[in-house]
Amino acid sequence: MTDPTFRDDMTVQLVKHSAADEDVVFAARVSTKGAESLPTGTFGPAEKGLINFLMRDRHGSPFEHNSMTLYVEAPIFVLREWQRHRVASYNEESARYRELKPVFYLPADDRKVVQVGRPGRYTFEPGTRMQRYTARRSIEMSAYEAWAYYREMLGEGIAREVARSVLPVSIYSSMYVTLNARSLMHFLSLRTEEEAARFPSHPQREIAMCAEQVEAIFAELMPVTYAAFQANGRVAP
């Protein structure tokens, strides 16, 4: 039997895309130019100004005429947080039809583990060395035990859809996410922690690790749109 292995990172990769700053411009200009709004190959100060205007005044629909597909590997509890954003299309691997791999999330030793304060007004603190040890050891041992029961049931011929019920949410799964820039900015506004944000958010660290990788992809594909998002308080239009 293969023993569990452990990770403390997340994977976010760009699979394919049709996304560029020009997409925003031609979609916006159809309002005033009709068919003449089709891309011309020119992109200068006027186009940059238009994107900033749309972002500032929250004219959101022009930011929807593009597409990005991402491949994500993360613990199940992170994927469930992500899927609460009902602004994307998701397809996740199914433990009904395939045996999951014995890969589990184990927080890095510097992950803050103690919550101080009440909901809505709290901070996370590193905790003592013993608290961090207890958290990591408990997660690790529960993964070993759950995996042993899972493999035992499969060995007895029990269906995967039944056997999976013993697996903890720390086990890794994978999914494809397809979304547009407007939806992506909505996700980033809630799942990143940025002092410059007009409406500060304090996401769980693990999904923020995913969001930071998504942000890097967005900034590379649509740099003008990303700059306008930053300049206008990281508010999704």
Automatic annotation (TrEMBL):
Swiss-Prot/TrEMBL cofactor(s): FAD
Q: Which Pfam families does this one have? A: Thy1 (PF02511)
Q: Which GO terms describe its biological process?
A: dTMP biosynthetic process; dTTP biosynthetic process; methylation
Q: How is the cofactor bound?
A: Binds 4 FAD per tetramer. Each FAD binding site is formed by three monomers.
Q: Where is the active site?
A: R191 (involved in ionization of n3 of dump, leading to its activation)
GO molecular function ontology, one term from the record: thymidylate synthase (FAD) activity
Source species, domain of life: Bacteria
Tell me which residues bind FAD.
S61, R84, H85, R86, E92, N180, A181, R182, H186
Spell out the InterPro entries in the cross-references.
Thymidylate_synthase_ThyX, Thymidylate_synthase_ThyX_sf
Pathway listed for it? Answer: Pyrimidine metabolism; dTTP biosynthesis
Residues involved in dUMP binding:
E81, W82, Q83, R84, E92, E93, S94, A95, R96, R164, R191
User: Which enzyme class?
Assistant: transferase
Keyword tags: FAD, Flavoprotein, Methyltransferase, NADP, Nucleotide biosynthesis, Transferase
Which residues are listed as membrane-spanning? Answer: none
The protein's annotated catalytic reaction(s) are: dUMP + (6R)-5,10-methylene-5,6,7,8-tetrahydrofolate + NADPH + H(+) = dTMP + (6S)-5,6,7,8-tetrahydrofolate + NADP(+)
The answer to whether the entry has keyword Transferase is: yes
Q: Fetch the CDD domains from UniProt.
A: ThyX (cd20175)
Q: Does the keyword Flavoprotein apply?
A: yes
Q: How does it assemble?
A: Homotetramer.
Q: What does this protein do?
A: Catalyzes the reductive methylation of 2'-deoxyuridine-5'-monophosphate (dUMP) to 2'-deoxythymidine-5'-monophosphate (dTMP) while utilizing 5,10-methylenetetrahydrofolate (mTHF) as the methyl donor, and NADPH and FADH(2) as the reductant.
Question: Mind telling me which PANTHER family this protein's record contains?
Answer: FLAVIN-DEPENDENT THYMIDYLATE SYNTHASE (PTHR34934:SF1)
List the NCBIfam families: thyX
Q: Which HAMAP family match?
A: ThyX (MF_01408)
Q: Which family does it belong to?
A: Belongs to the thymidylate synthase ThyX family.
Q: What is the name of this protein? A: Flavin-dependent thymidylate synthase
